[in-house]
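Key result, reporting period 2: structure in, sequence out.
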């Protein structure tokens, strides 16, 4: 009987020492953001990356959601460059530029690598509306945010 009493007292003491404070309001709703690092101008890969960022992350409440276009991916947002609509992607009947524009319209951010743009001979004027020219401050504020995950394509 004494063992049972001591066990009950120990359990009650342990319970009283553990934090039982309720979670902050909205904590269950908070979802980490996503930075998609996209380096290719391959339209199949790009369509998958953009769809994932838009449909899976942004539309499911993750914030912020950004796509960082760098290396050859800078060509994807060039408004003068025709974009292939990839037939292997079921349900995708938009160009890459249209997909990026829809992502931006829904609150996503498309960040362009400044150095890669210069190397490709492109400037901010060459890109579709809504693209942000990436500076170190813009990129690092998302990249090093502890509440943002990074995914590379």
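The corresponding designed sequence is given below.
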């Amino acid at each position: 009987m004494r063992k049972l009493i001591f066990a009950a007292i120990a359990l009650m003491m342990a319970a009283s020492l553990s934090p039982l404070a309720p979670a902050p309001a909205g904590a269950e709703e908070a979802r980490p953001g996503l930075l998609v690092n996209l380096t290719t101008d391959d339209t199949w890969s790009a369509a998958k990356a953009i769809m994932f960022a838009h449909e899976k992350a942004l539309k499911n409440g993750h914030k912020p959601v950004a796509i960082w276009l760098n290396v050859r991916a800078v060509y994807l947002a060039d408004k003068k460059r025709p974009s292939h609509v990839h037939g292997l992607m079921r349900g995708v009947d938009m160009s890459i530029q249209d997909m990026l524009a829809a992502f931006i319209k829904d609150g996503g951010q498309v960040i362009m690598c400044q150095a890669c743009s210069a190397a490709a001979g492109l400037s901010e004027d060459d890109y579709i509306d809504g693209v942000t020219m990436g500076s170190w401050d813009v990129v690092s504020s998302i990249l090093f945010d502890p509440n943002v995950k990074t995914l590379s394509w």
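Residues 78 and 127 are 5 Å apart (CA to CA). The longest helix spans residues 2-17. This case is discussed further under Risks and Mitigation.
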